[in-house]
Amino acid sequence: MPQINLAKQHPAVYEQLASFSGAAENAAAAAGLDPKLVELVKIRVSQLNGCAFCIRLHTRDALALGEHSDRLAVLAAWWESQYFSPLEAAALGLAEEVTKLSVPPRTDWDTGALSEEQSSAVSWLAVVMGAWNRVAIRSGYRVAP
């Protein structure tokens, strides 16, 4: 079966995902997470899921917020760099854990840098970003220069 645009096929479901996404972003803001970190989480989840459309979209959003290109360049191997704070490293590790669903759970990211509220917010961001990745990939959203 060819790719179909899920948003056009079932716009009400798409709108519910958009609402869910907004709620996750509001939770992140209420938890005190920096908007640049929110974008880093979205990019990292999209990297793991292989969603070029969302990687490009959120990289542009991160740059618009003032994120540095060096940090974006090493995001795929964040744990090997010294660019990320303990809080950012914990959030990225948690986002990877939620995205990959390791069994048994990988908890090396849990350094205590994230509060329970922040941990929950990052988890919701990863869950909703994974859903967006699947919509974009399944719908065949084009990524061209």
UniProtKB/TrEMBL annotation:
Q: Which Gene3D superfamilies match?
A: AhpD-like (1.20.1290.10)
Organism superkingdom: Bacteria
List each copy of the Carboxymuconolactone decarboxylase-like domain by range. 20-97
> Matching PANTHER family, A to Z?
CARBOXYMUCONOLACTONE DECARBOXYLASE-LIKE DOMAIN-CONTAINING PROTEIN, SI:CH211-175M2.5
- Name it: Carboxymuconolactone decarboxylase family protein
